[in-house]
From TrEMBL:
It comes from Gossypium raimondii (Peruvian cotton). Residues 105-391 form the FAD/NAD(P)-binding domain. Belongs to the NADH dehydrogenase family. PANTHER family: NADH DEHYDROGENASE, NADH:UBIQUINONE REDUCTASE (NON-ELECTROGENIC). This is FAD/NAD(P)-binding domain-containing protein. Its main location: mitochondrion. Signal peptide: none annotated. It comes from the Eukaryota. Residues 1-20, 80-99 are annotated as: Disordered. The lineage of its organism: Eukaryota, Viridiplantae, Streptophyta, Embryophyta, Tracheophyta. SUPFAM superfamilies: FAD/NAD(P)-binding domain. It is a peripheral membrane protein. Keywords: FAD, Flavoprotein, Membrane, Mitochondrion, Mitochondrion inner membrane, NAD, Oxidoreductase, Peroxisome. Gene3D superfamilies: 3.50.50.100. One of its GO terms (cellular component) is peroxisome.
Length: 403
């Protein structure tokens, strides 16, 4: 072994051990060589063979500090020919598979409508529940538009998931994890997660795994932008509580800025022009709430700029196209009576202060809300599972999917 040779060379240069004779030194070297070989095979030195094959960045992200291999030059030489196959896969902390006699574990990904409805009806006497989501509450999305203008407060449209399923807070083997799922292994019955990175933990992002007996994928969807340039950078979405908070802040900020001296007429009109893209239920509801806010509050509290503020709803076809004709016509008439301007058009590009339609029309805006429907999230797209033409997963053994 290389380590034995190093020891022999060092001892020879030092002139022996304790000044003994040649025969005694040879016996000592033979015993030392044998001892080192035994140690290398049977003791903790075998862990050196893992140094080369491990991903040290994974250890740093999980809060486990290891000495990089360049600080072990001798160890690196020793393990060059060692087998690394047993150390190829990263090791994650977390919940291991349930044991015989334990209740089966149901893992639910998400805290949206489908996930919370499932959790609410789950028989916790027969199953342990684990919920994994980047938010700890359910949002009543149809009411979000009302929170943007102060009709409702934000706490009125959210419900903690632990109230929906109390076992997540009270049962010893049921848990809620504030994290995002980054992968699913259906062969091993494991999901891999990453904690939310907001500076609350010393080493982030921290990754862990959760073994499951049953898995429910209800991770929700993401707003569709159709790849239009500038949407994500300049538009506001309306799907989460923080989205409504941002819209409310932007709306009030524009109202106050427009009253400052030195603001031109053109700039006032731009600042107070609220544009909604998409004539679906969310876009129509927000347009109605905004127009009510203008008529009831803005005209009273911001009288100096009341004549500048306006709302425009842009839709490529007809508003509420999936609803009955009579309902569409009623909504159209109501919005127009409320002062909402309806436009037909397709957005080509979004800039910080204006949008460009496909016919070349420029539409200046101070607030832009994007509500053109939803599609599968990047996490859903990343999973290698059979999907239907609409992007939904087929029901499989031990796997359910909701969108």
């Amino acid at each position: 072994m290389a380590l034995a040779r190093v020891a022999r060379n060092g001892l020879r240069r030092s002139g022996g051990v304790g000044g003994g004779n040649t025969t005694e030194r040879n016996i000592f070297f033979e015993r030392l060589s044998g001892s080192l070989e035994k140690i290398n095979v049977h003791s903790n030195l075998t862990s050196l063979s893992t140094i080369k094959g491990l991903n040290h960045m994974n250890f740093w992200s999980r809060g486990i500090r290891t000495t990089p291999p360049y600080q072990f030059p001798l160890a690196e030489r020793l393990v060059e020919t060692e087998s690394e196959s047993e150390h190829d896969e990263p090791r994650y902390p977390g919940l291991e598979a349930t044991k015989p006699g334990e209740k089966p574990r149901v893992v639910v990904l998400g805290t949206g409508w489908a996930a919370c409805r499932f959790l609410n009806g789950l028989d916790t006497k027969a199953y342990d529940a684990v919920c994994i989501s980047p938010r700890n509450h359910m949002v009543f999305t149809p009411l979000l538009a009302s929170t943007c203008v102060g009709t409702l407060e934000f706490r009125s449209v959210s419900e903690p998931v632990s109230r929906i399923q109390s076992a997540l807070a009270t049962s010893p083997n049921s848990y809620f994890y504030l994290a995002s799922c980054i992968g699913v292994d259906t062969n091993k019955h494991e999901v891999y997660c990453e904690t939310m990175s907001n500076g609350g933990l010393p080493h982030e992002p921290y990754q862990f795994k959760v073994a499951y007996d049953k898995l429910v994928i209800a991770a929700g969807a993401e707003p569709l932008t159709f790849g239009i340039k500038g949407v994500k950078e300049n538009a506001y979405f309306l799907r989460e509580v923080n989205h409504a908070q941002e819209i409310r802040k932007k709306l009030l900020l524009n109202l106050m800025l427009s009253e400052n001296p030195g603001i031109s007429e053109e700039e006032k009109s731009r600042l107070l022009h609220c544009v909604i893209i998409g004539g679906g239920p969310t876009g129509v509801e927000f347009s109605g709430e905004l127009s009510d806010f203008i008529m009831r509050d803005v005209r009273e509290r911001y009288s100096q700029v009341k004549d500048y503020i306006k709302v425009t709803l842009i839709e490529a076809n007809e508003i509420l196209s999936s609803f009955d004709v009579g309902l569409r016509q009623y909504a159209t008439n109501h919005l127009r009576k409320s002062g909402v301007q309806l436009m037909r058009g397709v957005v080509k590009e979004v800039h910080p202060k204006k949008i460009i339609l496909s016919d070349g029309t420029d539409v200046p805006y101070g607030l832009l809300v994007w509500s053109t429907g939803v599609g599968p999230s990047q996490f859903i797209k990343s999973l290698n599972l059979p999907k239907s033409p609409g992007g939904r997963y087929y029901k499989q053994h031990n796997l359910l999917s909701f969108h």
